[in-house]
Write a structure and sequence with these properties.
Elements lengths: L3 E2 L13 E4 L19 E6 L14 H10 L4 E3 L6 E3 L2 E6 L5 E6 L13 H12 L17 H5 L11 E5 L2 E5 L7 H4 L10 H5 L1 H6 L7 E7 L3 E6 L12 E6 L3 H9 L5 E2 L11 H5 L4 E5 L2 E6 L10 H9 L3 H7 L32 H11 L5 E5 L5 H16 L3 E5 L2 H10 L5 E7 L6 H8 L13 H14 L3 H18 L2 E6 L2 E5 L3 E2 L15 E2 L1
Parallel strand pairs: 3-12, 3-13, 16-17, 16-18
Antiparallel strand pairs: 1-18, 2-14, 4-5, 6-7, 7-9, 8-9, 10-11, 11-12, 13-20, 14-20, 15-18, 15-19, 21-22
Helix pairs in contact: 9-11, 14-15, 15-16
Length: 537
């Protein structure tokens, strides 16, 4: 979701808004009142092809998330800029006195794109389907807090429904959590928690060819390897978008997308290619039509600790200390990203950078000493997809490791699908690229789902009982004593940094650009264009 593990870049959620640094030329004023928006306009967005059919619970890549976010509306959303939770399809939600039962009531009159009503049962059925191990959905881990989740996840389990989900009537359902949670409601804005129509369960194959959602846009067509087209859903019960049609185009990478943007064949590109970052070249070429959005997201390298060759913490610390984060962010990213010394992201409530102060500091002498002490013979391999600008920085990291440690370092590019599949199956045999995008703005979301033993996104199978104890204590304090919770999260983060199961690199503030046709441009955290805000003159 992403939050999800952001590997294309994670993650998963498209509701947590960041701040943007806008090219000053984009803020020029005029004495003339703006022309009315062209409500009949069609726009083209450059993206990446979704890895899977467009089913919410199985869509965790940014390319697919952007489209799912347009096709579906969930229970809640977060206000851009403030990140305050507000109702979307939910009319209300009430947390019981024990902090474990959530009663959700839906707004009346909402319908799927096929005309059928959206009921409480559609949510319960969708969540149960996503969680059940037999269905192989990538987003299953998001439901782990619900009572009965372990039973539906057990290998070979015939259980298909979580005990914690109950339909009360067409507009009401209850969610029982295994433990009290101060953050579960914030998760509900993630598209993974979207409802599914009855048509999905009657004929899944047909649904995957023509998805049916309940969001502001409905599916029109998909040409594999080329595009997905959506159109405004005129019967949508929420606020209406101001564009009639959106075409998501896929192609040969960011360079091709940028070239199409320069000719107005494409209206939006979520990531400026590295070749245009140096010297701020894109700001000159797109004068007045670019911005850099700060997102609650980070970039990391993960050690597959299920492979014995990575068991020695000295090896992991050495590789981290061999990386000059500052130099890479200044050269490859032209200063648009900032080095990290911790496992959160700048602007994250409850988090300050520095938990990994020693082992995230570039120190060639200490790195070489630790590496020699580890006895690792090499080679050091880094796995990532090459698209979306990753090739340039992974190669730069590999060069630094090679030069600092005197060991061979090899970049092994793979397709994003292979990267994700091996991550989910715990089959990587080399250090692999990853990252995290906030599901909601809280340090808890950057630690517990990733570093707790057995957590759903603990992709390297890291375990430390002391970390588990700190995280559990922080969770217990979160609802009543946030300052104490944040202190405990900080202590847990320091323990994680000492173990170095994952190497923090930098945050993900990424420039984007748009055509001369657009106005009111802002981005979602997965670098998608905010389709509810954008207008065409």
């Amino acid at each position: 979701m992403v939050g999800a593990l952001v590997v294309a870049l994670g993650g998963c959620s498209t509701t947590v808004a960041g701040t943007a640094s806008v090219d000053p030329a984009a803020t020029t004023t005029t004495s003339r009142p703006p022309a009315p928006a062209n409500l009949n306009a069609a726009i083209t967005v450059w993206g990446t092809e979704p890895d899977n059919p467009l089913v919410p619970g199985n869509t965790t890549d940014p390319g697919g998330q952007q489209i799912i976010d347009a096709l579906f509306t969930g229970l809640v959303e977060q206000e851009p800029g403030t990140n305050e939770i507000k109702p979307a399809h939910a009319q209300s939600w009430e947390v019981g006195a024990d902090g474990k039962r959530l009663t959700i009531k839906l707004k009346p009159g909402w319908r799927f794109h096929d005309g059928t009503p959206v009921t409480a049962k559609n949510y319960v059925d969708a969540w149960n389907f996503t969680a059940a191990a037999a269905n192989g959905q990538q987003g299953a881990g998001y439901f782990e807090q619900i009572a009965g989740y372990p039973e539906v996840r057990a290998p070979g389990s015939a259980v298909r429904e979580m005990a914690g989900l109950k339909v009360v009537d067409d507009s009401t359902f209850t969610v029982d959590l295994a433990q009290p949670s101060a953050t579960f409601v914030k998760l509900l804005g993630d598209p993974l928690f979207s409802p599914l129509p009855d048509a999905f369960f009657k004929d899944r194959a047909s649904f995957e060819l023509k998805p049916v959602g309940n969001g502001p846009f409905q599916f029109v067509s998909r040409v594999p390897g080329s595009e997905v087209v959506l159109a405004r859903f005129e019967q949508y019960s929420g606020p209406k978008p101001k564009v009639r049609q959106v075409r998501f185009r896929f192609g040969a990478g960011q360079e091709a997308g940028y070239a199409s943007l320069m000719t107005n064949e494409v209206d939006f590109i979520g990531e400026i290619p590295p070749s245009k970052l140096a010297g701020g070249r894109y700001k000159t070429e797109l004068r007045g039509r670019s911005a850099s959005a700060d997102r609650l997201a980070n970039q990391t390298l993960v050690f597959p600790l299920y492979d014995p060759k990575f068991a020695n913490p000295d090896l992991r610390r050495a590789i981290s200390m061999a990386i000059d984060r500052k130099k890479i962010t200044e050269t490859v990213f032209a200063g648009d990203r900032k080095p990290l010394k911790g496992y959160g992201a700048p602007g994250l409530p409850g988090w300050t950078d520095g938990a990994c102060a020693e082992y995230c500091e570039y120190n060639p002498t200490k790195a070489k000493e630790l590496f020699q002490r580890s006895g690792f013979a090499g080679p050091i391999e880094l796995i990532s997809n090459a698209q979306s600008g990753h090739k340039e920085w992974v190669e730069a990291v590999c060069n630094q490791i090679r030069n600092t440690l005197g060991a061979d370092c090899v970049f092994k590019p793979v397709e994003i699908r292979e990267l994700l599949e091996k991550k989910n199956a715990k089959q990587h045999t080399a250090i692999f690229r990853s990252g995290w995008q906030a599901d909601y703005p809280d340090v808890q979301n950057f630690l517990t789902p990733i570093y707790r033993t057995g957590a759903p996104f603990n992709d390297g199978r890291y375990t430390n009982p002391a970390v588990d104890q700190k995280l559990a204590a922080a969770e217990a304090a979160h609802g009543t004593n946030p300052s104490e919770a944040y202190r405990l999260y900080r202590e847990a983060e320091q323990l994680i940094a000492a173990d170095m199961p994952v190497i923090p690199l930098w945050n993900n503030a990424t420039p984007h650009g748009w055509s001369t046709r657009l106005r009111k441009v802002r981005v979602t955290p997965v670098l998608g264009l905010d389709l509810m805000a954008v207008e065409v003159e």
